[in-house]
Design brief:
By secondary structure, this protein is an alpha/beta fold. Helix content is about 35%, strand content about 15%. The structure holds (4S)-2,6-dioxohexahydropyrimidine-4-carboxylic acid (DOR) and zinc ion.
């Protein structure tokens, strides 16, 4: 039995850090384990220009614990007004590594997102030319489409047509949740990749809804049927370079989760690596963990692999159930099983 596992230091290719007091409270959990992360721009107001991304980056760096080395890889929030020239400036700055597409109304702070996809044509052409990845929240928002079908419908109605119209556009399907997304990503060329969260490898929709409603398991895209979770597990543990970790760790205070209309998001930053090691071991694929957390992402983003390593050891980690913030506690994702891998 393997009792220690040394892997390249991981990166998180999809992370919400928020701002202000919340940023300060949640950043240490990510910086403790991860070298870099793609930082989501859905602040209020959103991070839409290269200049805003640079100052958000400064705030993140300023919030790092003493001695921590962590590199925020910034993104721009795509709106119908985004200027292709600003995308170019952002790309040339070397600080901005992707543009994030939220369909308007799809999720937290997505009101400024895209409604009319024809209005972003020029930006997409520009991105295809410079090779900048488009990170896509892949869900339609049509009220007549069932929430459990929104990802599959998005692939057919929006994503595939956009990719066909924009040859060379590099796309990351973010936080995929369906077998449909796995098979679409697997069937395309290497201009397409997909991130998978930690929690979608662990929970299906029963975990949210059966035996009482569990707001801490509610996120978007919402977890689907068991067959989809199993497809995600096969993709994540396959070693296929198109699939890599994006935790979508999305902190909300308990006060904002436990409401009649609660926020979407699972806060997985503190225990992600322990949970992943557990999942990969269950799948008999501990040897594939490093590809998923540390190798496939840099390859897609055309960045070097991290120079350092981390070691996981078979022993119960000490992870708090909640972290405290100025606005109250934030509950850490509960995988529902005891963890026995810790990062040393
Ligand atoms: O569950 C989610 N939470 N999904 C998202 O797409 C956004 C995120 C957030 O920002 O809270
Ligand atoms: Zn997200």
């Amino acid at each position: 039995m393997t009792d220690t596992l040394k892997i390249r230091q991981p990166d998180d290719w999809h992370l919400h850090l928020r701002d202000g007091a919340m940023l300060k409270a949640v950043l240490p959990a990510t910086a403790a384990h991860f070298a870099r992360a793609i930082i989501m721009p859905n602040l209020v107001p959103p991070v839409v220009t290269a200049q805003q991304a640079a100052s958000y980056r400064d705030r993140i760096v300023a919030a790092l614990p003493d001695g921590a080395t962590f590199e925020p890889l910034m993104t721009l929030y795509l709106t119908e007004e985004t200027d292709p020239k600003d995308v170019l400036v952002a790309h040339q700055s070397g600080l901005v590594h992707a543009v994030k597409l939220y369909p308007a109304g799809a999720t937290t702070n997505s009101a400024s997102g895209v409604q009319n996809f024809d209005k972003i044509r020029a930006v997409l052409e520009q991105m295809a030319q410079i090779g900048m990845p488009l990170c896509v929240h892949g869900e339609v928002t049509d009220h007549d489409v069932d929430i459990f079908d929104r990802e599959a419908v998005f692939i057919d109605r929006i994503l595939d047509p956009i990719r066909k119209k924009t040859p060379g556009l590099r796309v990351v399907m973010e936080h995929i949740t369906t077998a449909d997304a796995v098979s679409y990503a697997s069937s395309q060329d290497d201009s397409l990749a997909a991130t998978i969260t930690t929690h979608h490898l662990v929970i299906n929709r029963n975990h949210i809804l059966a035996g009482g409603i569990k707001p801490h398991y509610y996120c978007l895209p919402v977890a689907k049927r068991e067959e989809h979770r199993l497809a995600l597990r096969r993709a994540a543990t396959s070693g296929d370079a198109r699939f890599f970790l994006g935790t979508d760790s999305a902190p909300h205070t308990d006060a904002n989760k436990l409401l009649p209309c609660g926020c979407a998001g699972c806060f997985t930053a503190p225990n992600t690596l322990s949970v992943l090691a557990h999942v990969f071991e269950e799948e008999g694929a501990l040897d594939k963990l490093e590809s998923f957390t540390s190798l496939n992402g840099p390859a897609f983003y055309r960045l070097p692999v991290n120079p350092g390593h981390i070691t996981l050891e078979r022993s119960p980690p000490v992870i708090p159930a909640q972290i405290e913030t100025e606005d109250g506690p934030v509950t850490v994702f509960d995988p529902g099983f005891p963890l026995h891998w810790k990062v040393t």
